Fold this protein.
Amino acid sequence: LMPDLFPKAAARHAAAAAGGSVLDLWRMPSVRMTIIAAGVVGSAQDLFQFYLPIYGRSIGLSASAIGTILGLVFFAAFVIRGILPLLVKRLREPTILICAMFIAAIAYTLLPFFVSPYALGAVAFLLGLGVGCAQPMTMSLLYVLTPAGRIAESFGLQKTVRNATHLVVPIVFGSVGAAFGVTTVFISNTVILAASGFLLRKAGIPDSDPYRG
């Protein structure tokens, strides 16, 4: 109703857009790897929410203990996002995203070795630190890596991939867990996170600030 309230940045960038299919963005290696990384880290959080209650029930944890452990993931995400501006001043965004994937991988590696609710809470906090900084780093990188005028398409593509993981990951890992047990799910996700971290590192995604020391 009042379009003048919106900033004019979109209109300025629109003139620079080259057009074409959204698949053109997917064909850009840096954009594609960033979107995949976001999907992998996001699915790690989904799997934790899905399987921690099952694992906690199997080792005799109470419902309140399981709920507290799940809540620690979000608390850690809140903490890491509070200090993220300080990290960005010292480290490159791709480096932070890669570290987040390895931190999440370490958390999944530790999960099946603990039955104490306090130890599992510490692991959940570690996982939250990893997954909590993935989304803002992904959005920051996509904003820099996407051609001018096509940023909304890039964000939409990232959201599409993320929603696809919401559908596919529980089904696939639910079948794996039913066939081989919860521990197999944790270790499998460790491998996926670590492999994605190495691939992201190999991709050589540029920094948003080329003058950062």
Observations:
- Residues 117 and 212 are 42 Å apart (CA to CA).
